[in-house]
Design goal:
It contains two helices and no strands. With 64 residues, the protein is mostly helical. Helix 1 (3-25) runs antiparallel to helix 2. The two termini are 24 Å apart. The mean pLDDT is 93.
Length: 64
């Protein structure tokens, strides 16, 4: 995982937070929830390959 990935995740977090607050204050809580959910799914789709590689490395290290 490089530093660029961490900055991308942070940028998504900031963007989701700002959009969520704007939507909540305008009375659209449902859309705010959907924006948060979309941000979570986006970040998870970026992170899952790294988690897979981590488990493969652990598996190879312990030769399971």
């Amino acid at each position: 995982m490089n530093v660029g990935m961490i900055f991308r995740i942070a940028a998504v977090g900031v963007l989701v937070t700002i959009l969520g607050q704007v939507l909540k204050h305008s009375g659209r809580e449902e859309q705010s929830f959907l924006v948060s959910l979309a941000g979570l799914i986006l970040v998870l789709s970026w992170i899952v390959p790294y988690i897979y590689d981590l488990f493969e490395t652990i598996k190879a290290m312990f030769q399971l």
